[in-house]
Prior knowledge:
The complex is a heterodimer. In chain A, about 15% of the residues lie in helices and about 30% in strands. Chain A is an alpha/beta fold.
Amino acid sequence: xxxxxxxxxxxxxxxxxxxxxxxxxxxxxxxxxxxxxxxxxxxxxxxxxxxxxxxxxxxxxxxxxxxxxxxxxxxxxxxxxxxxxxxxxxxxxxxxxxxxxxxxxxxxxxxxxxxxxxxxxxxxxxxxxxxxxxxxxxxxxxxxxxxxxxxxxxxxxxxxxxxxxxxxxxxxxxxxxxxxxxxxxxxxxxxxxxxxxxxxxxxxxxxxxxxxxxxxxxxxxxxxxxxxxxxxxxxxxxxxxxxxxxxxxxxxxxxxxxxxxxxxxxxxxxxxxxxxxxxxxxxxxxxxxxxxxxxxxxxxxxxxxxxxxxxxxxxxxxxxxxxxxxxxxxxxxxxxxxxxxxxxxxxxxxxxxxxxxxxxxxxxxxxxxxxxxxxxxxxxxxxxxxxxxxxxxxxxxxxxxxxxxxxxxxxxxxxxxxxxxxxxxxxxxxxxxxxxxxxxxxxxxxxxxxxxxxxxxxxxxxxxxxxxxxxxxxxxxxxxxxxxxxxxxxxxxxxxxxxxxxxxxxxxxx
Amino acid sequence: xxxxxxxxxxxxxxxxxxxxxxxxxxxxxxxxxxxxxxxxxxxxxxxxxxxxxxxxxxxxxxxxxxxxxxxxxxxxxxxxxxxxxxxxxxxxxxxxxxxxxxxxxxxxxxxxxxxxxxxxxxxxxxxxxxxxxxxxxxxxxxxxxxxxxxxxxxxxxxxxxxxxxxxxxxxxxxxxxxxxxxxxxxxxxxxxxxxxxxxxxxxxxxxxxxxxxxxxxxxxxxxxxxxxxxxxxxxxxxxxxxxxxxxxxxxxxxxxxxxxxxxxxxxxxxxxxxxxxxxxxxxxxxxxxxxxxxxxxxxxxxxxxxxxxxxxxxxxxxxxxxxxxxxxxxxxxxxxxxxxxxxxxxxxxxxxxxxxxxxxxxxxxxxxxxxxxxxxxxxxxxxxxxxxxxxxxxxxxxxxxxxxxxx
Lengths: 510, 407
């Protein structure tokens, strides 16, 4: 296998030697009580309108739902019926209940406020079975999407994949053997991923990609290459998850080459990260394919990652690896992203039985620091400026002797980075009319001249006080003028927009 | 029926419907600049044209304009005056801008070829191979980096590439400004567009500004896909929706780089595309960023109007859209030269799409076509040369045809 840390040994030894010399000036053992002391204040302040409903700033807030109140309309789908047909027919604000049984579908949701909720009856779930023929089980791009209580298996792509939907909740799903990612929300803000059981995934069981304000909690992820991966995201809490028998357990990355360039403000706390020693079966070329088996946690180029209260045990390579882009040999470069893991913060954790059969590169760092023992909990390779740790003496470490003492001991003041449900943006109908006029009508009509269609002045004279007449014509135009081409129907605009654009057209003056 | 014949039939003479032949033609004195914004733009109180689109009702993460269906577009350029935009249009179609008066910008960004040129690689002055394919200009207002190798970071900088390249338009700054300043019509139009005194001479930055002003007016956001996005489910048929779902699936992963709503994430990606037979390997962005890891990397192009801009890839390796899509289905690195190590993008995989799935992706890509805001080719340009491209003898009315066919 191509190792993550395949760097020239000489460079590592030199690096280690530097640390070794630095150690002489290190102060004596500092013992800090994690139960007292200051709390980390986090990197996110809720916007003012949010603070009013959810408490202010760093004051503890409890938000258990982000998708808004549960819609009143309910549609029930039974095995043999089409889930997609129900989605298609649903108005925004519909709960689609799936009765237990098996469904073979890719379900896509491109509208807002849809919930797909499985009904669990006597332990029997609604099962989406891709039979290794279908690509993805659930694809959503709508806002306020909720998916709960499903069992998803044997898809080739992803179990649940989001593209830009905000305020999502992915909860209590069982996902097995489903392609590249089990759960993959991408390019969204404000989402919850909790109480899911995900296993047998060829990349990350749960992958939070290019997203903001996400809460990942109480999931069980196992038998996958990566357990939970947070990549190019901001303001993410990953807590109380059970992460076992993956190649790598918890990952916080900046992957170069993505359009959103940073990962910062990530809290890994209270997770059970146990025995992630699975052989790496990642696809060649994938970012995770270079992770050494037996990696509990891995921080690469991510900033302000806080690691607190986790039990990290039984990892043959290391409990925690902190590294940078330069030492990850199988990935590209990105001049626009900072390659280093800045300001990592390691608070109290329970780390045991880590690094008992580590890779040669880590051994070299240990040797260089005269830590020739048969274990390592925490290893740092590559620059990590501004980082800190408390109670460092409790871990076997390599390469972190220059970490400062943190000036806080816990994250108790931060209960969540979630935002209260945000009401949908109200669009003034008049604005919609103006944009439809400028964005569509103006391609064929100008105020006082001939383009493709007749001048707006002429239309105004005909319809004077009759916007409804224009709105009606827009939906079903008929050929009126022999010297003009027939107007194509504009029925793709909803009736409200058709009326709004008609009204706007009647008052245009230039 | 052409737009011009409409004009004659209706007897109107407005900026977009130029009057028929008269004596003023010889001097260009009849050429005036429009006081109206192009379609899609609103004239603001301060006299600037600002873009209006339904996408402005949506948001995007970190304001980056990347996501799914109802996601805002990336930040864009606009705010030029109607006259600057219209001046840019005359410059764009005027072969006076090339070293020997045979090529205009529109020679390689042709209105009848999706604002590209339909060639594997563009043909520059004296028939030279320009080396790479002309990209479409539709929606350049939203881009931040230009050229296949991402070496320019503004349209103003980009314009100077082809203008002064000996393989493209073959001009030089001194000669360009001399020919423009030697033309009384251009002197008048630049004075109007930039509100300058009567003795002011035309400067390079003004030329690039006017070209930019015109280029950022080339907006294509009214495709059938857009209608689907804005809430009209029936805009796409069953096969096209299947194609959309393959396109955004994590098996095909197309949308991971060709990310809606612009269908590009504007990153440089190394995908290992082969060169046409007999052509040397093009290192692409390796030179721009001085990084071996980006050898063979090119900027991810937008897929809007992609059905109109065959052949495909930076040097036109694939003649059809289907061949281009199928490239990604033939296995990671299958076409990388034996002696070369490339850092292939992680989304280049072995997706094993079925033939039917490849067909559906192509069906979907065809829904991204929209040329409703095609600009009018000027009937005449200030130099008196034939607009567009004197060498190929294409006329304004021929080039206008697609704009009329459009619905």
